Every structure is written in structure tokens, then in C-alpha cells.
Amino acid sequence: MAELNQRRDEVLVTLEQEGVHREEAYLLRAVESWVLVYVIDADDPEHARAIARASTLPIDQQHIEVMSAVIAGPAAVEQLLGISR
After folding, report:
1. What is the SS3 assignment for 42?
2. What three-state secondary structure class fits 41?
3. Of all helices (H) and strands (E), which one includes residue 63?
4. Which of 25, 11, 23 is nearest to 71 (CA)?
5. pLDDT tens string 68-83
6. Coil, helix or strand for 1?
7. Which of 4, 22, 36, 62 lies 20 to 30 angstroms, CA to CA, from 69?
8. Which residues make Cβ contacts (< 8 Å) with residue 78, sequence separation at least 6?
9. Helix/strand/coil for 7
10. What 8-state DSSP symbol labels residue 19?
11. Which residues contact 58 (CB under 8 A, 6 or more apart)?
């Protein structure tokens, strides 16, 4: 993830293509492991995922490889608060 901060210009190009306003990642320490929380604010999340999967940009391909290696899949989530203005 630190590399993404160093490649900010490339990241901004891909976010624009995907219609993503913001991406955030948090690593939380659980009792016996770590939990990655990944937040994406997009106009259309399904469209953003489709664009990302179809992208031929090197940064997108690398991001898919890294995420595939570190995640077990989506988790059940209960939203406790969601306020927009």
C-alpha cells in the first residue's frame, strides 16, 4: 500500500477512470491476526469494479495481484453510521 502513495499520479488516473472519489485502507490488529478494511467511495461501485478488472494499466494489474494474495474475500458488515451532506 505504501507504494500506491509513491505512485500517486498513476493512482489518480485509475480512480478517475473508475469513477472513484476516495480509497482508504486500514490494517486492524485482531486477537490472532490482522484485518484489512478497504473503503471505496464511488459513484457506482459495480462499474468501478468492472473498470478495474478490465484495466490494462500496470498499477491496476499489480493492485489486483496484491489484493488477491492478501484477502480471503468479502466479509459480512453491518454499517453503524453513514451520514452524507
Report:
1. strand
2. strand
3. helix 58-70
4. 25
5. 887 777 777 788 888 8
6. coil
7. 22
8. none
9. coil
10. T
11. 10
